[in-house]
Automatic annotation (TrEMBL), chain A:
This is Phosphate transport system permease protein. It comes from the Bacteria. GO terms for cellular component: plasma membrane. It is a multi-pass membrane protein. CDD domains: TM_PBP2. Part of the binding-protein-dependent transport system for phosphate; probably responsible for the translocation of the substrate across the membrane. PROSITE patterns: ABC_TM1. GO terms for biological process: phosphate ion transport. Residues 94-305 form the ABC transmembrane type-1 domain. Signal peptide: none annotated. Belongs to the binding-protein-dependent transport system permease family. CysTW subfamily. The chain crosses the membrane at residues 36-59, 90-122, 134-158, 170-189, 227-250, 285-305. It is found in: Cell membrane.
UniProtKB/TrEMBL annotation, chain B:
NCBIfam families: 3a0107s01c2. GO terms for biological process: phosphate ion transmembrane transport. GO terms for cellular component: plasma membrane. Keywords: ATP-binding, Cell membrane, Membrane, Nucleotide-binding, Phosphate transport, Translocase, Transport. It comes from Paenibacillus methanolicus. This is Phosphate transport system ATP-binding protein. It is a peripheral membrane protein. Part of the ABC transporter complex PstSACB involved in phosphate import. Responsible for energy coupling to the transport system. Residues 11-252 form the ABC transporter domain. The keyword NADP does not apply.
Amino acid sequence: MSAPASAAATELGTSLKTSSGKTFGRRARLAFYNRTFKAICVVCAVFVCIILFSILFLMGRTGILTFEYVSPMEFFFSTEWVPENEQYGAFIFIFGTFALTALTMLIAMPISILIAVFLAEVTPPWLRAVLRPVLDLLVGIPSVVYGFLGMTLLIPLLRDVTGTTMGDGLLAAAIVLTIMVLPTISRISDDAITAVPKKYRDASYALGGTRFQTTFKVVLPAARSGIMYAGILGMARAIGETMAVVMVIGNTPQLANSLLKPTSVLTSNIVMQIANVPFDSTWNYALYLMGFLLLVISLLMIVLIRFMQRKGVQR
Amino acid sequence: MQAPAHTRALIEIDKLNLYYGTFHALKNVSMEIPEKAITAFIGPSGCGKSTLLRTLNRMNDMIAGTRIEGKIAIGGADIYSKEVDVETLRKKVGMVFQQPNPFPKSIYDNVAYGPRLHGISGRKQLDEIVETSLRSAALWEEVKDYLKRSALSLSGGQQQRLCIARALAVEPDVLLMDEATSALDPISTLKIEELAQELKDRYTIVMVTHNMHQAARVSNQTVFFLNGEVVEYAETEKLFSTPRDQRTEDYISGRFG
Ligand SMILES: Nc1ncnc2c1ncn2[C@@H]1O[C@H](COP(=O)(O)OP(=O)(O)OP(=O)(O)O)[C@@H](O)[C@H]1O
Ligand SMILES: [Mg+2]
């Protein structure tokens, strides 16, 4: 006993079912746009992938030629970088890069977290409204400016304080890099802390927790993955940074067994030497290999970030 | 049936006024809350039940622009006087929220959080507190083998009982429950009501509820609010059988609200 459909229902049915009948009606046009747009997106995505793989391939292909003349053992573990004598041990630079990055993070993380806590939990709203945009602006300052500041302010200061004659070296570079990555890490951590739900804080306060206890026992652990994400982002920036480092590290191929000894890292060594090397030389290949190494390290870090973002979403 | 009128008042609220900025949220509220009994706050949405509840452990202090006049005394001590330490007050006056809000930590660490805040760190002592609190909250049997598991893996009803256990772990005298069952299914709700019944022998419980049947079922005393005012408060049986005020009668018979 099916009652006849009401007029409204019939109309709804027809409007769902059909295209308007015209060959190039609104519906057909929308479908066309949809398809075109999708095609453009796919092309762009493919293009980006091609670029990435070309870069990897280009750097890797030239870099790998190093191993025709230098054993991997020598390249990775020898401290003798004397291209004039055909000695291409990159250990100094690899070690320098890792040491510099580690030192930078060691200084930058605690300070950034304190800044973030201060911003998110302590600062009155009006001050926060000023500080956040200022930090965001700092992120965009060209690194060469930080290098200048390091050269003209920091290095003389280090000379005075430590009594050394040079002042260039890991410490100076780490301080400059710290100042550079501080805004990035602290702002992203700040966002992570701000995003911690109020209900966790309420629960802690309702149990008699002080603000200090609540911040360090509840809020920071709850924001942990976001803060780690901020740290890795800052670290990726520190590893690849060239200009600011070149200006304060001293650019001497000697192992940095002291914080105040001029040394060199992967980026600074590449940029200092690449202009002077013959195109088809082992020296050139070795520099490419160092670049390739940097590239792989940064890619790994980005993969790590992606991985953590996904984990963050799950929680 | 316990007669709250005969028990001693633990909390005395005297001519309390509360303002959120210019908004007058509580108007001249006075009442006594008896010790070791359940007092229910009922009333339509927005009438100030949660606000009053939060004045009792001073959670309102954290809402900017709140101003308070009048007096609240717990055990004879004015809780808004300068000598009172807010953290100690909140330790003594525990709170369970509407939405279960366990920390994103393990079940064990959730319960141990409060005691740790207040300086207890011995492993054995904490183990003991965790067990007794979870037992008091009728959750021990369900979780005793999973104490290291994340609290967020529990069901909503279990989470809420965990929150009760967490509140009990700091040995409060008063337990405030703000619509603690409104996010839960009927069976979990029943469990928590039963739990409240058991706990009232040891704790003074104040609960906000939207559910009049719940108030009638579990509470000893009921307070009816309207627009920030106390319209009527009495023993629960009396209030529901012979309300003195017409507005109370209208509300409990479902004629408005
Ligand atoms: N933080 C605040 N700032 C300003 N006004 C508020 C704030 N919290 C509550 N109010 C106002 O105070 C009044 C009482 O709110 P309260 O949350 O105490 O009501 P309630 O009785 O608990 O309602 P419900 O049953 O919906 O939870 C409401 O009109 C509300 O809009
Ligand atoms: Mg409420």
